[in-house]
């Protein structure tokens, strides 16, 4: 430890070495595969950014703003802002908060993400070539300063989240911001199309240049005195962000606030005291939904996404999604609840120590989820259908609503015990109370599985609605009840037989399996292909395939951004079928290639 007592510059070197050592020793199996694929995809995006600077320079500020948004929201969407080097580890060192902040900042640059982002920022000197050698020089300096500013903004944002998200209100606010950001990323085109006039486009261009990500473009285009002033201002912003971050780190280390657990004062008693095991568990679960900041944030994200997405489409006068606001919320809420048992940590031992409590525990969790998600989803569905005036949507809403609620309540407990991802116990979470400490890639995979599986449970009801509306409503009630009962039965049976193994998994993590093949064993081209398919397969399948399919069935006018509906009528159905087939093939490739690797490696050799 003596080498850590050296001045800040040397300490920064050691931070970099520690960060690299942690990354090197923790990347095994699928983690290494995900990193390789992620870096490969990032390099492709960086090359695309440079191409924008060459071919479409007017869109360079917008492209760089996308990289800035990734630094801001990426830590929350992928990893909850988890940290490899926490400031608490160095609180006993004889160093000022600024020195610790500088050293941690140096460690933050020791990774692939800053390197990939720096490659993307090379678009600035490439763009500066248009303005001569001075433009190239200014672009190089601006690229470095912009990278530092982006990383610093990300660190300050995560530090603010970790320090001030200590109440239900702040956790809800973060969830609303994340849900709104996801909705803008997926359907912001509608707002852009509605505001696509010349004046609006000029206004957006000004906004993107005012953002810190656009200062480099402004500096390249300006005269050299103004460019120098912009670069000096950027250096001042870096110093200000560093001071703010040092202050936040100091407050985080010495803060006496409780670790992300809000006060119990005013906590409702949703269910009366009873001897029924399922009701006792439901009451406990509802209190967890009320107190756990992670659950509050996830629910806020789900419902804000479900509300903002139809509102964005209203900008182009498309009301088709408004009746289905509640249905979207159910699917998103189920996806965010997929790791229901893993989020509780080792608290499962309380259930296992009570004879015969497994069935009551599963049924109680299902009931609590229905009470937390069902009423607002029903309200959004009924209100959305009434306000939209889309009378044709009533059978679909009334039939799919119970089917999705039952399917979601059944699948979350089933996947909770069959695909559990171990996380940190709630009372042991780190500086960011919205981080569960679980494997982000595994949790994301389960979430995507739920996004596909829950709508699948409603397919019988959808088919029955096409036959007759009343039959569809009855089928929705029946399939919802059967899904909840059947999946829940499988879940508590498995909990009875494998409960000890699940508890051991949550306490110690997955057992090492050095001989088991992983995605990391795939060739590089297949790793990149699997990663890309997981990321974009939903685009041809749902927005360009399933959505125009239903629009054609119900005769909804307005081609919007659906490719098939912009084509002549004779090509619309073939295009829709081709898009759905493309999405299914991409998902098949993403799942079957790793499975083929596993089966081929376990096959007996002669």
Helical residue percent band: over 70%
* Overall outline: globular
Number of helices: 23
Distance between the termini: 54 Å
Explain the overall architecture.
Helices cover 73% and strands 0% of the residues. It has 606 residues and is mainly α. The protein folds into three domains: 2-254, no CATH class; 277-511, no CATH class; 522-606, no CATH class. Helix 1 packs across helix 4 (97-108), helix 3 (60-77) packs parallel to helix 7 and helix 14 crosses helix 18. It is globular. 42% of the residues are buried.
SSE topology sketch:
Layout: H1 8-26, H2 30-55, H3 60-77, H4 97-108, H5 112-121, H6 123-128, H7 133-164, H8 168-194, H9 198-210, H10 215-221, H11 224-254, H12 277-291, H13 293-314, H14 325-336, H15 348-352, H16 358-388, H17 394-418, H18 440-457, H19 459-467, H20 469-508, H21 524-536, H22 538-554, H23 569-602
Helix pairs in contact: 1-4, 2-5, 2-21, 3-7, 4-11, 5-7, 7-10, 7-11, 8-13, 10-11, 12-16, 13-14, 14-16, 14-17, 14-18, 16-17, 16-20, 17-18, 17-20, 19-20, 21-23, 22-23
